[in-house]
Fold this sequence. Notes:
Elements: H1 6-16, E1 21-27, E2 30-35, H2 36-52, E3 60-64, H3 69-80, E4 84-88, H4 94-103, E5 106-111, H5 114-123, E6 132-135, E7 149-151, H6 152-165, H7 169-174, E8 182-187, E9 197-201, H8 202-213, E10 223-226, H9 233-242, E11 249-252, H10 259-266, E12 270-273, H11 275-290, H12 294-315, H13 322-343, E13 350-353, H14 360-368, E14 373-377, E15 387-388, E16 401-402, E17 407-410, E18 415-419, H15 431-437, E19 438-439, E20 442-451, E21 457-462, E22 467-468, E23 474-475, H16 477-485, E24 490-496, E25 503-509, H17 511-520, H18 528-532, H19 535-549, E26 558-563, H20 583-589, H21 591-596
Parallel strand pairs: 1-11, 3-4, 3-5, 4-8, 5-6, 6-7, 10-11, 12-13, 13-14, 25-26
Antiparallel strand pairs: 1-2, 8-9, 14-15, 15-16, 17-18, 18-20, 19-20, 20-21, 22-23, 24-25
Amino acid sequence: MAIKTLPKALLNIVEKQPNRIAMRKKDYGIWQDITWAEYLENVKHVTLGLHALGVKYGEHVAIIGENRPEWLYSALGIVCAGGAWVGVYTTNPVAECEYVVGHSDAVVYICEDEEQLDKALVFREKTPKLRKLIVWEMEGLKHYEDPMLMSFQQLLDLGKEEDRANPDLFLKLTELAQPQDIAGIIYTSGTTGPPKGALLAHEGYLWVGHASQQVMPATNEDETISFLPLNHVYEQIFDMMFHLTVGQIVNFTENTDTVMADMREISPTMFHAVPRIWEKYYSGIVLKMADATWLKRKLYKIAVQIGTQYNNKALARKKVPLQLALAYHLVYFMVFRKLKERLGFDRVRLGVSGAAPISHEILKFFQSIGIPIREGYGMTETTGITHMSSEVDYKVGTVGRAIPGTEVRIADDGEIVVKHPGIFKGYYKDEEQTKEVLVDGWMHTGDVGVIDDEGYLKLTDRKKDLIITAGGKNVAPQYLENLLKFSPYINDSVVIGDGRKFLSALIVIDEENVTKYAQDQKVQYTTYATMTRTDEVIALIQEEIDKVNKQVARVENIRKFKIIDKKLYTEDGEVTPTMKVKRKSINAQFGDLIESMYRD
Length: 600
């Protein structure tokens, strides 16, 4: 019988491999192993604890916390009790937390620590359906008494008591969930308005898990590393969809600042990241090599040239001359192998980039040094994936072919429209928006793209972001922004020009790399803001923009730019938790700066 609910998937995988390692977490610098049997035991006690608290079939429970085993115990415990989890970003300010918890009708709020509890204490009077507050880490709260508050350990203890009193109850509860029932509600990042709660079903999670593995096979021997927000569908692909269908080991990083160090210790076999992370790795390599000895710089330069030539042939599907193949294997052994070890990529057989478009030059660079990165495409509403490239079947510049079982068509206006068994069930309490994007089972993505003769999908841009200049020329800003972000000195960019005579750009510098440049060049400044206004830094960014202008048509040239003198923060509503710029917010916030570029 096909397994179509998450509780059944968990029980199935535990039965197959109870003593294999399911996950690892780092405590005080030491990695702790957690077996599948221990995973299930924790989930069981969460389930029974929630049941004892009165959580009923179909009710919603909010989770807010960083990636850690307790997140998965909580989420799986909720669905095993017949409910659905609601993910909340840890970076969300109080008002946004209140909106998500209130709008989703959450009855319990499971949170990480005192900081996240404080948010609920502010808004709980305005969310009357909220009955209980549960905290993983009680540091600072041991003597705080509140009838609504309990620790996660107390929840587990309550579950253990319930299990002793009624040993058959857990398995009975796991029968409640049906394939079409909602397992998770993911609130979209709200780049255009208030977040919308996408309803994702059990059958969708498991279907995507199985279908995507036909393109990117994984086994229980694989290891992944968890550090992107777990309430985002992209992280859930690896920590839930893959995890509950193949049973690979998930390693939880100590915190977001230790990802690179943890990578070296774990050396995973699969590594998934958003473009911002891949860009950071790239700029880090470039700048480290700039500081290396003359001999190392020379060797690296020759190695990259050979790697680029080799992979240009491979990418064009042309036969690689024997001499070039031998040269590549030599430089790989001498240079790239050691570089991969230092980065923690020595075991990575496949890197994945998703959640936002990535510069094709970044992909080519990593391919050249022996780290294959494949782009995938999907969205929350498609339960994460519709297209992806395999290790061998790929084409740079595209997001791959549709995964098996997926139908795709391009609408008359260029919009990508998709259909598969993992399409979401609609937006919670928002029939109007649901009808707008979901027509006869077809998801209207809002993205513009083309499908080539071989079935590869190439993304152009978001439909609403396409620029039409005053001269009537159509420009896709995302393409230009990705070229700009290839520079180690540019962290982000927003290209402007809709209805204007020419294109301009707002630039966010890479603080670490530009600071180093300023120090090397003995540039005088006092703060981040004053550094962005120095002639030397402005000239540096102009050079990077000139490089991009040479690669594109004249109409796509960026004629003017301004450097934003502050970093962009999720808390300020300027970027989403996956580091995508919120254009509407940026245009409103920096309106005067934009207008200054168009004054005669």
